[in-house]
UniProtKB/TrEMBL annotation:
Its EC number is 1.3.8.6. The lineage of its organism: Bacteria, Pseudomonadati, Pseudomonadota, Gammaproteobacteria, Lysobacterales. It catalyses: glutaryl-CoA + oxidized [electron-transfer flavoprotein] + 2 H(+) = (2E)-butenoyl-CoA + reduced [electron-transfer flavoprotein] + CO2. It is an enzyme of class 1 (oxidoreductase). It comes from Aquilutibacter rugosus. Pathway: Amino-acid metabolism; lysine degradation; Amino-acid metabolism; tryptophan metabolism. Belongs to the acyl-CoA dehydrogenase family. InterPro entries: Acyl-CoA_DH_CS, Acyl-CoA_Oxase/DH_mid-dom, Acyl-CoA_Oxase/DH_mid-dom_sf, AcylCo_DH-like_C, AcylCo_DH/oxidase_C, AcylCoA_DH/ox_N, AcylCoA_DH/ox_N_sf, AcylCoA_DH/oxidase_NM_dom_sf. Residues 16-128 form the Acyl-CoA dehydrogenase/oxidase N-terminal domain. Its cofactor is FAD. This is glutaryl-CoA dehydrogenase (ETF).
Amino acid sequence: MSLNPLDLYDIQSMLSEEENAVREAVARFVDTRVIPVIGNAFDEARFPVEWIPEVAELGLLGSSLPAKYGCAELSSVQYGLICQELERGDSGLRSFVSVQSSLCMYPIYAYGSEEQRMRWLPSMAQGKTIGCFGLTESHGGSDPANMKTRAVKDGDHWVLNGSKMWITNATIADIAIVWAHTDEGIQGFVVEKGMEGFSTQEIKHKMSLRASVTGALFFDNVRVPDANRLPNVKGLKGPLGCLTQARYGISWGPIGSAIACLEEVLAYTKERILFDRPVAATQSAQIKMAEMARRITLAQLLALRLGRLKDEGKMVPQHVSLAKWNNCRMAIDIARECRDLLGGAGITTEHHAIRHALNLESVITYEGTETVHQLVIGRELTGINAF
Ligand code: TGC
Ligand code: FAD
């Protein structure tokens, strides 16, 4: 019996019928709608906004939230599989879905009032209202407690001043979930496009996540109604709680990038004849590809265990840190190695490896850099905070 080279341990058979159905539906969308155009979109530094209604129609926005808000009410494993399949297409597309779902819809659901949920979630699930999440500031994203953005109460409004940097969806968003210091601790505000004093600017010249919108947010005495403040959380645990949701998805996503790269080099090295034999027939290429399959298999098992823990309500942020760190590192190493196996052909976007490798430079940095996650685990092991 020959094994599936992209699923050596037949992890698919560990998934329920419903889980496999979601995976297959997203895989079809990625194969037919994303892969044929992604090279050009990346070259043109364009996020294909025409995908938004289609991912909404598939139920991928806020997919874990309850049906009463127009969401698909899927399990955590299903959300993970969605991220994996989307990122097999491109990290930019998975980023879009992560930000909308885990960083914007989740805080409205978890920390918002019922009125706020009904106001925003159904139209966000339909892709009609797009969100962005403003936590990072230019002076240091790893240490968000040091944010300078501040909101001061003025009657039934808050006056917001400051700025946010490196924000996915910044210039295409209708609403921004913005975290700011207040006299009562860090709080979250829903800032709406068009509010006076609120502006955005796209960040150009990116060599990574080119098929994704990244920008800055500026707040110059923006008057935000108290009705737009998320009432049910105060302190850094608010934004960090959202990050745990998004990092969970990112623990799955890069498996997709790695699979796309391995699939590509398996085919290429069989066709590429050098010194009278296919590159795939050399020991060094086989060892490299075997190593990739080993690391992908371990990452798949780790992600599935993480997902099962989350669905059982037993997942803690430290579990997520280890998986995000391991699976991003696995994928970036594989993408770079695959680029090498493609030789010169590997430097253009006609092949996938370099695009994934470049994207993963962002993925390993955002949502907590590799160092941040290593230090979270170090603190767990030793009980000593080394930040
Ligand atoms: P500490 O001050 O000890 O804790 C503050 C409170 O937060 C709680 N907490 C968490 N809650 C939920 N999830 C987590 N992951 C949590 N980590 C901590 C903690 O229990 C405490 O609660 P309480 O009730 O006692 O007040 O903070 P810390 O020392 O744990 O945090 C330090 C550190 C470095 C880990 C944290 O600041 C950090 O994670 N920094 C990295 C920042 C980051 O990841 N930024 C990402 C920005 S968003 C983004 O990148 C989006 S890209 C998305 C895309 O395009 O796909
Ligand atoms: P820094 O925090 O300045 O880190 C610089 C270096 O210092 C890193 O190598 C880091 O690991 C290291 N370092 C940090 N702390 C320590 C320590 N204690 N010991 C040793 N080394 C340390 N943010 C949002 O809020 N919303 C978004 O939607 C969003 N989207 C993004 C999209 C892209 C494409 C990118 C690139 C970033 C995005 N970010 C977003 C920001 C992202 O979360 C930050 O880039 C990230 O948290 C790191 O912050 P920084 O870039 O300021 O780097």
